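Worked example 3. Consider a protein that binds XIL.
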Amino acid sequence: MPRALLTFVLLILMSACKKPSSEECGLEKSLYQQANFPLGVAVDPTYFSLPQYDTLVSKQFNSITPENIFKPSYLHPQENSFFWWEADNLVARAQQNKQRIHGHTLIWHKQLPIWMLNYQGTKAQWEAMFKNHIQSICQHFKGKVEAWDVINEAFNEDGTLRNFIWRQHLGDAYIEKAFRYAHEADPQALLFYNDFNLAYNERKRAAVLTFLSKLKQRGLPIDGIGMQMHIAINYPSRGQINSAIQAAGETGLLVHLSEVDISVNPFNKGDLDKEELFNRQADVLATVVLAYKALPSRYQYGISFWGLSDANSWIRDFYQREDYPLLFDDFYQPKACYCKLIDLL
Ligand code: XIL
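Given these inputs, the predicted complex is written out as structure tokens:
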């Protein structure tokens, strides 16, 4: 073979085998512009002082979930006062960027203000306090927050209802009441139930989906289910991911993959082969995204990632381990899973 031809063939082969670099998978493209459904990210406003964070959040995503600042301990720190300032700033920023705000979360067993945990009152007073909490927040953001995670994580892993202050004082009906009160305060807002482990734990998934389907059949104002999808490269299996997303779609509710992150180190090992792990992570994300794309488009509320870069992920703090669960690395550069996502959308 002539030398020039040989060089040419070798160059073609090399470029075919080369891993995509960040430039090649194109940060200039913008994720949400490639997608037929909204793409979201959980944000912590303290990071907006970093230009890379600010630019990526505004350019790559068209839906924003406040990671913490809409939780009860932040918005409702005292019985008779609410703290709106930080949340209002985030809403204004999102509006400027034409991004949807997904409100997270009205009722949860964690991140509750101390006064609420220690509240003393009759059943009627507990009810009034519950209603006031939900309606004050929904009214404040009326017309600005498109959807709410009304209830977060109401189920135990064995499929029974979790016991915490609201169930203790209002009974099981607290769930229905929360949806009704939220709807009364903002009839236009879409209302979601949100929970974790719904792909891996089939028993919990069945309990949650049956429960929500019944509520919907009874005419309760519930619009969607959020599947958090804090998953790992080792689990759930591809089959579990597919069945969970498909089953969620069969409820007739909107489906939000609401807190996606993919741990590459769930068992906290040392000496990680990051390149290999990042490629496996990209494959898992591909399974998730393809299963989501297979849903009828009328059920696709969107996919939201739980943080922007590995440097911002809650996993490191919360589980105290080395991990890299998100689309962008510690230096805000796109990882293999970002490139895969751009390809698949
Ligand atoms: C997490 C936040 O990411 C952390 O910053 C905070 O310290 C604890 O809460 N499921 C949820 C989210 O619904 O609200 C949690 O967010 C992660 C698990």
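Take a moment to read the result before moving on. The first helix runs from residue 3 to 17. The chain has one domain: 32-344.
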